[in-house]
Each structure stands twice: as C-alpha cells, then as structure tokens.
Specification:
This protein is of the alpha+beta class. The protein has one domain. The chain has 4 helices and 2 strands; from the N terminus they run αααββα. It has a two-stranded antiparallel ribbon. Strand 1 and strand 2 form a beta hairpin. Helix 2 runs antiparallel to helix 4 and helix 3 packs antiparallel against helix 4. The chain starts with a helix and ends in a 6-residue tail after the last helix.
C-alpha cells in the first residue's frame, strides 16, 4: 500500500468507527461519556489501592539490527537494489510500578465515588431519553 494511501486510511478510521452503532447507541454513548470516564478512573484507583501501587507507562527508544534496502541506478540507468544490515530505532512501551500514598488514593476514591453517584441519576435519565427518542426495532 502506498504511503499516502495508508496515511489517508489511518486518518479516516476514527470517522468510520464513530459512524458505527445505532442512533440509540450513539446517543447513549455521547450523553454518558463523563459517567463512564469517572467509573473507569474509580476502577483504576480501587485497583491501585488493592495492589498497593500504581502502574505507569513510559516510552523507551531502542535500536534493533534489521535489513535495509538501498536503491540506486547503475551505469545503464537500471534500478538496482542492495540489502544490507543496519540499525533502526523503535519505540517500546514499558510499564513500571509507582508507589502510592494510600491516604491520598483513598481520598481520590471517595471523591470519584461521590462524583459517580452524582452522575448516575443524570446518566440513567439520558439513557431512558435516548431509548425513547431512538427506539430499536425488534427483529
């Protein structure tokens, strides 16, 4: 696949994914985004408290011996290819443990749990409104 075509496909992919789903599903997803984000953060904080540490990620650049292809024209104008060993950089993601302050993490958990409880009623109301506005046909 030519490079420009691949870049175009990558740029269009999020738009295609966003267009997926029924109108009801899109409505529910749009109106419950903050509730889902708070729920996800709360799960992460609770997991940190249970483990006693948090996970973080960092990017590490490493090099790898691989094959490189060189193109050149010979004296007759024909394109020739040579393959040689070369070093290429690549990015690796490392997960590592980070110590937590249990008291701060519990305060964070309590705040997120409170916020989740506040959002729950609103999220349920939006779900019901979306189901009413966009009823799905039973097949």
């Amino acid at each position: 696949m030519p490079r420009n075509t691949a870049l175009t496909a990558l740029a269009v992919l999020p738009l295609l994914v966003a267009a997926c789903g029924t109108p009801q599903e899109r409505c529910i997803s749009k109106h419950t985004r903050e509730y889902r984000n708070v729920s996800s953060l709360l799960q992460e904080v609770e997991a940190n408290l249970e483990r006693g540490y948090a996970w973080e990620e960092r990017q590490v650049v490493r090099d790898r011996l691989t094959h490189c292809r060189d193109l050149y024209r010979d004296r007759k104008g024909n394109v020739q290819t040579t393959i040689r060993p070369c070093w290429r950089d690549y990015v690796d993601i490392e997960r590592y443990r980070v110590p937590i302050d249990p008291a701060a993490e519990q305060r964070k958990r309590d705040g997120l749990a409170e916020r989740k409880a506040e959002l729950e009623g609103t999220a349920n109301a939006y779900v019901q409104a979306c189901k009413k506005a966009f009823p799905e046909e039973k097949t």
